[in-house]
Structures are given as structure tokens and as C-alpha cells.
Amino acid sequence: MGDVWGPFGVFGPSGRSARSEQPAGRVRRRCGRLSGMSAPPLPPAATRIDVRAWLLLLGSFALLMVAYFTLPLRYFGEHRPVLSWLVFAAVLMLLSGLLLARILDLLRGTGKRPGLWLVVLICLSMNVFAGTYYVLAASAGEFDGLNTRLDALYFTIVTMATVGYGDITAVGQWPRLIVILQIVYNFVFLAAAAGTLSQRVRSGLESRIREQGEGGRSGRGRRGHRGGHDDHDG
What are the tens digits of pLDDT across the range 145-174? Predict the structure, then answer.
């Protein structure tokens, strides 16, 4: 049986006034809404630092630099020309395949830290070309102004950045061939890797900003919805 309207209020099936139950019912409804309402999600941190990734990156870079400045690179050279060119070609082909694989992983969103490995592979490519220039500079008349490993690394970075100060120049035919190869390698592989990495970083920042905006709007909407119900209950 439903509620019955009487002269002094609404009576339920038990005969008690429904008006006397309004405060208790209002409290129960409000508590139910509060218990069922989840707190607005906190926006993600504006800057979230992956300490492990940074440590891996810095450690890999340090190992590459230590290897470059300590390995006996001039074991190769004009006294072992066939072995030297075979090792150079094999390492360059391996680096190219690894760069392509990491670029695909980054585009597909697969793999473990593909962006980190891209940076490491770019640094390794830089070391390979610098070591090749240093080995070639041991032969007379191949380079002008390149004498040390630091000179070779400096010349590699200048060539990669297409700056060309002119203080170190490739004089021989083999060094000029390697310079041309490095420029092509930079345009094809390193530019693709850097572009993919920057696009991934930009997409991550945009999605994070979008999530922050949606979280803020959702939180304001819930607060406004709760305030409207409170006013209605009041």
C-alpha cells in the first residue's frame, strides 16, 4: 500500500507521519551520495622524473666515452685495411638495423624504453665515426688539424651539426668518403631517430596536459553537482 495523504501530512503504510522521517531520510540520502561519490582524480604530476632511466642513460654515455678514449683504436688502420673496413661496415650496418628497430618500437609503443636506446645508439654512432676519423688521421696527409681523439670527436660533432668551422678539414680521399657517408647517415637514420623521439615526447606532454585539464573539469563538475544536490536537499 502506498502513502496516504492526511490532513496533517503524508502517512506511510505503518501510519507514521512521513514528514517525521524526512530529516533522517535526508541524512541517509546525503550519506549515500557522499559514500558513492569517488574523490576527483588527482592530476598527474607536472614533472615526473624517471630516475632509473636517467641513470641508465648517464651510465651508458659514460661507458661509451671511457671506451672511446681507452680502447686501442689504432690497432686498425692502413696496416690492416681489409679488417678495418670490414669491421667498420659491419658495425655501421648493425647500428642501422638497431636504430630502425628502436624507431619502429617507439612508433608502435612497444619495447622497453625505446627512446632511451635511441639516444644511446645515436651516441654510439657518433663514437664509431669519431674512432674512424682518429684511425684515418694516423696516416699522413689524410686530415689537416686532427691529431687527438678529442679532435676526432669534435670533428664528428661539428659534421653532425653541419656547422663546419674549417679548423679541421678532410684532405684525403678516404676521410672525405667517410664524411659523405656520415652526412648521409645523419640525414637518413639519425634525423629519423631524433624526429621520432621528439614527436613521442611532444605527444606525451600533450596527453599529460589534456589529462590535467580533464581532471580539473571533472573535479569542478563533481563539486558543482554535489553543491546542487545539497541545495536541493536544503
Answer: 999 999 999 999 999 988 878 899 999 999
- Among 127, 130, 135, smallest CA distance to 75 is for 135
> In this predicted structure, what is the pLDDT of residue 127?
96
Report residue 11: phi and psi, to 5°: -110, 135
Query: 142-149: long-range contacts (C-beta < 8 A, 24 or more apart)?
Result: 142/170, 142/171, 142/172, 142/174, 142/175, 143/168, 143/169, 143/170, 143/171, 143/172, 143/175, 144/168, 144/169, 144/171, 145/169, 149/68, 149/69, 149/73
Three-state DSSP at 167 gives coil
Q: What's the grid cell of residue 50?
A: 624517471
Nearest to 186 by CA among 156, 149, 166: 156
Query: Using CA atoms, how far apart are residues 230 and 233, in angstroms rounded to an integer?
Result: 5
**Are residues 99 and 121 in contact, defined by beta-carbon separation less than 8 angstroms?**
yes
Angstrom distance (rounded) from CA 199 to CA 210:
16
Q: Which residue has the cell 571533472?
A: 218
N-to-C CA span, the chain:
29
pLDDT (average), residues 27-38: 51
Instruction: Report whether pLDDT(78) > 70.
Output: yes
Report the DSSP pairing between strands 169-170 and 143-144.
antiparallel
Q: Where are any strands of DSSP class E within the chain?
A: 4-6, 9-11, 143-144, 169-170
Residue 91 near residue 83, CB atoms below 8 Å: no
The pLDDT of residue 220: 64
